[in-house]
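Methods — Computational structure assignment.
A single polypeptide chain was analysed. Its primary sequence is given first, followed by the predicted tertiary structure written as structure tokens.
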Amino acid sequence: MLKISTKALWRVLDANFNRAKEALRVCEDVTRFVMDAPKLTAGYKRVRHGLNEVLVVLGKEELLKARDVAGDIGRKTIGSESKRADIKSIFYANSQRAKESLRVLEECTKLVNIKSAERLKRLRYTVYDLEKEAFSRL
């Protein structure tokens, strides 16, 4: 069985915290500036802030120490990420990215702090609800 190093685990967490927060910001800005939807905007902002709270509990210093942008073999942009048809496709892509990252965070955080993993699960389900509401308006 492959054992994961502590640094490798923190790299996974760091990459997914960054990915989730960036994707949530895109969704938040679409609901804010394109949809003019205050409740949805506030919902996405709450999820982002919830992620920040989990970061504080886990220790953002550990994440930063483990970060290795130059050594990241998956940082190259793929073709599908360079093409978007409209604002709805931008929102959809970022909503998917946020949910996927939250799932990775939830699973990997179980190795570090089970309460934080439960919090991440609740945040992920909140994003499911926000996404459904937003798509009904786009």
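Note: Helices lie at 6-34, 38-58, 60-66, 87-109, 114-137.
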